[in-house]
């Protein structure tokens, strides 16, 4: 799911009807509960709050529907300040279903940019200090001029089906009863299609074909871009990579196991495939 189409990114000062903050601590974003206690609300700026957020680590994110969004790194010792009474630190994964979709995605964007800034203070070439010249997310070395942009790591999600009602799924240690589709990072020098074939072969030992793009999703843990493909099983016996998986098996569309959360592209791909197969049964 992308950022809202009306969200306007910014790299400089912002103006709007109100300002919402995403202060990030080592334990998550500092937030309040909604009025009914059932969800997450971002911190709305007040003159007193604005003074507490470190100017040096504050970044503008953008605007949506007249609301300005900013983020900053916040030392843990500050969260005990009286102005933060009633607030708590919330892990980014817990935003899903507890905050609005728009603010969940903005929080993911904030987490990625703050992570990049935190890990890009010094030049990897000469060790000089990196600074942000503004106008875009780029840091430039004050000594040798090396430029550094936020890293985005492409990773694939691969739904393997048999062309009928079967789906091949994978299980990792620690997942309990949950199964999911295959996943893996794209290697240097590798196309997305080559990655599909390699990952499925490495993890399950089977051959696939008839690849079809199935969507993408930013995944800020900390900086992935998930890219989905469907692939049709062509042959081979299941032989799992025991360093990656502890099981892989076929399931039928009407007897699926416990699945990943709804916020993930993997679940959305599974549900789209399931809906298609069940619809075909009615024809």
Description:
This protein has 3 domains: 8-118, Nucleoside Triphosphate Pyrophosphohydrolase; 121-150, no CATH class; 153-278, Nucleoside Triphosphate Pyrophosphohydrolase, CATH 3.90.79. The chain has helices spanning 47-52, 101-118, 192-204, 265-282; strands at 8-9, 18-25, 28-33, 40-41, 43-44, 59-64, 67-73, 88-90, 130-131, 139-141, 147-148, 153-161, 166-171, 182-185, 207-219, 224-235, 247-252. The chain has 283 residues and is of the alpha+beta class. It starts with 7 loop residues before the first strand and ends with a helix. It is built from 4 helices and 17 strands.
SSE arrangement:
Blueprint: E1 8-9, E2 18-25, E3 28-33, E4 40-41, E5 43-44, H1 47-52, E6 59-64, E7 67-73, E8 88-90, H2 101-118, E9 130-131, E10 139-141, E11 147-148, E12 153-161, E13 166-171, E14 182-185, H3 192-204, E15 207-219, E16 224-235, E17 247-252, H4 265-282
Q: Largest sheet, described in full?
A: 8 strands, mixed
Can you identify the CATH class of the largest domain? Alpha Beta
Specify the structural class. Answer: alpha+beta
Please, what is the CATH homologous superfamily of the largest domain?
Nucleoside Triphosphate Pyrophosphohydrolase
> Might you state the CATH topology name of the largest domain?
Nucleoside Triphosphate Pyrophosphohydrolase
Summarize the amount of helix as a percent range: 10-25%
**Amino- and carboxy-terminal Cα gap:** 30 Å
Number of strands: 17
Rg, Cα atoms, Å: 22 Å
Order of helices and strands: EEEEEHEEEHEEEEEEHEEEH
Please tell me the overall pLDDT.
93
Q: Please name the CATH architecture of the largest domain.
A: Alpha-Beta Complex
Low confidence ranges: none
**How many structural domains can be distinguished in the coordinates?**
3
Number of helices, counting only DSSP H or I runs of 4 residues or more: 4
Range of strand content: 25-35%
Shape: globular
Q: State the assembly state of the protein chains.
A: single chain
């Amino acid at each position: 799911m992308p950022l809202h189409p009306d969200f306007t990114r910014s790299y400089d000062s912002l103006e709007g009807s109100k300002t919402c903050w995403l202060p990030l601590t080592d334990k998550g974003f500092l937030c309040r509960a909604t009025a009914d206690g059932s969800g997450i609300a971002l911190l709305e700026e007040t003159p007193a709050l604005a003074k507490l957020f470190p100017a040096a680590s504050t970044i503008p994110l953008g605007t949506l529907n007249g609301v300005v969004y900013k983020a900053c790194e916040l030392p843990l010792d500050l969260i005990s300040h009286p102005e933060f009474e009633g607030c708590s630190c919330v892990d980014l994964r817990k935003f899903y279903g507890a905050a609005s979709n728009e603010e969940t995605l903005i929080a993911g964007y904030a987490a990625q940019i703050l992570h990049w800034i935190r890990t890009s203070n010094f030049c990897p070439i000469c060790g000089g200090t990196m600074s942000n010249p503004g106008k875009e997310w780029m840091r430039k070395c004050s000594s040798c001029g090396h430029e550094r942009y936020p890293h985005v790591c492409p990773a694939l999600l691969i739904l393997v089906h048999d062309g009928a009602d079967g789906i091949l799924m994978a299980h990792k240690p620690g997942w309990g009863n949950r199964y999911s589709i295959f996943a893996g990072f794209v290697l240097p020098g590798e196309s997305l299609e080559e990655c599909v074939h390699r990952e499925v072969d490495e993890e399950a030992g089977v051959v696939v074909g008839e690849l079809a793009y199935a969507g993408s999703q930013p995944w800020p843990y900390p900086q992935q871009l998930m890219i989905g493909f469907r692939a049709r099983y062509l042959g081979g016996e299941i032989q799992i990579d025991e360093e990656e998986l502890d099981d892989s098996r076929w399931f039928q569309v009407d007897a699926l196991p416990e699945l990943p959360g709804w916020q993930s592209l993997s679940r959305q791909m599974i549900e789209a495939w399931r809906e298609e197969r069940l619809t075909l049964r009615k024809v």
